[in-house]
């Protein structure tokens, strides 16, 4: 028998971000690349990411929240931070981009440390 709070709760859990976002072609393409990587290649590499969320989860959310251009740069810089000599720990995707982050200045998407 189920309890009242559990009855009818058929929502499936996903490791990827499932919040609301505009479904533009660039976002869907970027999210498709990340999902393809997760399904095909991630199993061969193993669970060795030094950050929470993992780099592929971060990339999926970055594409969904910020689009193909900004999300792509944020994902690229996150993967670079995950390498030897990089950072570790909690590193969530920012909810909104700072005003100093312009599309023509992609290096400004790089963050050296987690926000406080």
Automatic annotation (TrEMBL):
> What is the recorded function of this protein according to its Swiss-Prot or TrEMBL entry?
Could be involved in insertion of integral membrane proteins into the membrane.
Could you tell me which InterPro entries the record lists for this protein?
Membr_insert_effic_factor_YidD
- Source taxon at top rank: Bacteria
This one is known as Putative membrane protein insertion efficiency factor
* Family label: Belongs to the UPF0161 family.
Subcellular localization is given as: Cell membrane
- Which PANTHER family does the record cross-reference, listed alphabetically? MEMBRANE PROTEIN INSERTION EFFICIENCY FACTOR-RELATED
* Gene Ontology CC, one term: plasma membrane
An example of a Pfam family matching this protein is YidD
Membrane topology type: Peripheral membrane protein
Record keywords: Cell membrane, Membrane
């Amino acid at each position: 028998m189920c309890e009242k709070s559990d009855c009818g709760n058929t929502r499936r859990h996903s490791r990827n971000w499932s919040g609301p976002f505009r479904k533009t072609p660039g976002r869907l393409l970027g999210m498709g690349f990340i999902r393809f990587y997760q399904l095909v290649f991630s199993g061969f590499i193993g669970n060795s990411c030094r950050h929470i969320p993992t780099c592929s989860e971060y990339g999926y959310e970055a594409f969904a929240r910020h689009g193909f251009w900004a999300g792509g740069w944020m994902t690229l810089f996150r993967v670079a931070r995950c390498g030897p000599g990089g950072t570790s720990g909690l590193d969530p995707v920012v909810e909104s981009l700072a005003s100093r982050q312009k599309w023509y200045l992609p290096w400004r998407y790089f963050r050296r440390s987690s926000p406080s």
